[in-house]
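Bench notes, afternoon.
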Amino acid sequence: MSPATELQSLAEAPGYQARRTLPLRVEAMRQLRRRRTLLMGGVLAALPFVLIIAFAIGGTPDGEGGGRGSSRINLMDVATESAANFAATSLFVSAGFLLVVPVALFCGDTVASEASWSSLRYLLAAPVPRARLLWSKLVVALGFSLAAMVLLPLVALAAGAAAYGWGPLRLPTGGALATADTVPRLALVVAFIFVSQLVTAGLAFWLSTRTDAPLGAVGGAVGLTIVGNVLDAVTALGSWREFLPAHWQFAWADALQPDLEWGGMVKGAAVSVTYALVLFALAFRGFSRKDIVS
């Protein structure tokens, strides 16, 4: 279906109001009932229990092992100190890849799946304006992505409280945060992780408007995110790495300091939001001119 045909159908619809088409609650319920949404929620909810079992089998973390450096070893050292430490550790081990998957899945599958089911043209003929359709799907996809990131620490806090008890957040650099400051700091961590994943969301959503294959959009977004991580590991790039979103993905560690530091998180958020806005704009621009035949 061409854009001109859609405009003609809109003009001929008496009493038509664009804002009443494809309400967010309808799109949200459609996505909530899908099997992949329930499966992803189950995986994220199960991760804290897998970690608890791993710590029970392997014993108290002793700091031995590899990783990106001392920050990971120290954070793992205090993973079983309290529920807050366990939640922070759960976020750390999942932020690099696991939390990328739901973002790519929810944002990359949303439009491409409609095309693969040959239902996209019928939605537009309803008639739902293209901008309205993309806006509804993007808002719902980002909402589910945020819900996935909130679900993990919530389950980790509950499971950690049962396994290790509630207490202050012991910091890897020494000292501890008061119990009253624990939840706000973890909330800030989740908020930054969500903002840093907007690049993946933008990639997935843009690819979703360019292909009829959902797996292609999801896989492409995950693949490009991995490429960014690889490039960030190339130290020869020097200061150029600061323009890579992956360079700032663990800047949230600054929130786990006695004195909150904003510098790295602000820079990382600015880079991520800039890339995301460009990708979202490309998605809306390309989709507005595309002939829909599926």
